[in-house]
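stuck on this chain:
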Amino acid sequence: MIGGPFFITPHAVRRYMLRINGGIDYEHALEQLIDHTRTARRVKMLDTGAQLWRTGKPLRLRLIVDCNQPGKPQLVTVL
């Protein structure tokens, strides 16, 4: 994956499509999600070891990010 602060998993893209913008195809959803993550900031560490992140306004997405893997942090899902 090129661009953006995270490696975005296919599951995260599908959750974004399901919860936020279901009227678009996978590629457009991925592009939108990459744009949203550029404004993301870490909120807290979760009990599972993953991190909760939030994107900036206007959408304010809540993201679950796994930073325990080598390489870029992985955006696991969109809440």
